[in-house]
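Pilot study result, target chain (310 residues):
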Amino acid sequence: MMAVATNRKIWRRAVFATALGGVVGVILLKAIPFESCADDDSKPSSADSSDRPAAGSEIPTTAEDPKPNPLPTAEELAALEEGKAMYRGLCSGCHGGAGRGGKGPNLTDDRWLHGGKDEDIERVIRNGVPRTTMKKLGESLKDAQIAKIIAYVRSLARAPGSGTWKPYIAGDPKAGVQLFFDEKGKALCAKCHTVRRRGGRVGPPLDRIAVRRSPEYIMESILQSSKFIDPSYESVQVVTDAGKVLVGLRVNETNFSIQLREENGRFHSLFKRDLEAFKILKKSLMPDNYSEQLNVKQLHDVFAFLMTLE
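Predicted structure:
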């Protein structure tokens, strides 16, 4: 009896082990993809799998894989070289060789005073800008030449930036406003310059100066006022028949007369026949010793205020 019972227990354990093995096998078959068990020769090639994306997967769009810009043709390169030559001869004196500004605005940013479209730039080149150093060139340039200059200017905007100039320290624009308009202060800027219709008229108005001039040019103009003198703001000295000497801003001049405004704002209109002497001064009416009148912080405060005038 003991032997029979023992045999029955062994038989039951064998049946249980067989059943358990079958269950485990089914689970493994469910968990492991059939392809992973196949031979390497039966797997689809990489070329076949790339041609047939898996169900539910997203096909990459062209936006994720943009095509490179085509290289310029020989004709386009020749046109750019011609535009470059004309730009350097006609424009670089004010806008800089790299177009990043100087006496004229920066041509590589998106702050265009008279519009940034090609037709706007063409209009400015053709007609000029009154009361500025931007002279009209439409009478001396053909349409194709203007187009080549514009194309070269556009290429400057895409070129890597080379302007590395920065002020020595960061100024405080609010403190600069106080210095600029203080009638009893050291700077006395508003005595000659106008900002938002406030100030004097001997010097050029400074509205939007941060757009019209480069930062480096503005700082140099403060420290070296006679280095860059706008022809529209040249100062003159006259001596009358009576021996009176007058120095001021030349407001207007004809073959027979001259009008000037003194630094104190007093206006004079004189006939040239009544003058004993007349000459254009190479020195600006603006003081050239601001580096001595203002400390470093005050100087940069005024500069910071000017850079807010966009």
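One observation from the pilot: The mean pLDDT is 78. A full batch analysis is planned for the follow-on phase.
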